[in-house]
Amino acid sequence: MPEKHLHIVAFSIPYPANYGGVIDVFYKLKALHSKGIKIHLHCFSYDRPQAPELEEFCASVHYYIRYTGFSSQFSIRPYIVQSRQSEQLLQNLKKDDYPVLFEGLHSCFYLGHKALKGRILVYRESNIEHHYYFNLFKVEKSLFKKVFFLIESLKLVNYQKQLRHASKMLVVSMSDRDYLAKAFPNKEVVHLPSFHGNSRVASKSGRGNYVLYHGNLSVGENELAASYLVEHVFDDIEIPFIIAGLNPPESLKQLLVGKPWIQLVPNPAKAEMDDLISNAQINVLVTFQATGLKLKLLNTLYNGRWMLVNPDMLAGTGLESICTIAQNAKEMKEKVQQLFESDFDTNLLIARNELLEKQFSDQANAEQLIRHLWG
After folding, report:
1. Which of 97, 126, 261, 299 could form a disulfide with 238 if both were Cys (CB 3.0 to 4.6 A apart)?
2. What is the CATH number assigned to the segment(s) 211-358?
3. What is the C-alpha to C-alpha distance for residues 291 and 287, in angstroms, rounded to an integer?
4. pLDDT above 90 (res 80)
């Protein structure tokens, strides 16, 4: 069989795989590499060092400077797109006729370029970006950032039209698939869940002695979720509650004053975060954005005990049967108290493993991706 080569244009350097978007990219590289695909990775450098570890899974790795700052904001293109352009990237893509996988709208500056006309150009969706940025606008406290998120959302609505140049679209949730299929009725839009790196459910049976919420706390959406839990769920039930994540803001720290049953764990290393997830009695995850597939949800289902969520966390995922759902703060408070006294047993593990293996296997999804690229 002839070798199969693939260009992947990533919005950032996907190592270490320690937050949503890069987790999907990194474990996609690993899964495709295990299937014999020769990957030519192109990634933008701005807040992460170059990663020699990626060379284990890629035939070649190329780095390009991301042009952050005001100069990239004065454009009709969204900032997240305009800042990720590189003539060298275009020249590298032109050297052959391999398929190109564009990771997120961020990486799509050259999706409609005439030099790539006739190529297999696949868009990999991770969010409906203008929805995501509009929700960031709604929860942001800084006036400067609020204005930026609103303008970016408006630009992204317009820029989404560029997706007409994609050969097909691969989306992470069923609800996002429905949205893009309606917006682009002449395009093939396929549900392909996020890659996550877990091969089996490793959840512990028995009980833990605390409840955990985790996320990147510098992101407004996650700060809002953590604050909501502190103020409306764990305000007067003195069950040990841990909030863990990157760069917690001062405003969140102030909410914990006078609540000794709530502990903040800032910037935990991966091993520490893994231990927190696996040893918790309940992992509680809340979002107010019903878009994309939250990778921390998948990772926690593979490694944690009870999973308590609000409906928006599950939108379009098909994971309702293996999560406990609370419609509001009152119901969430009641279910925290109920689950905290309930053993997590092996029957629950079996049901969880069956569903996750059927729908979210990295190996099966890599095979599906290969079929969409080469038939």
Report:
1. 261
2. 3.40.50.2000
3. 10
4. yes
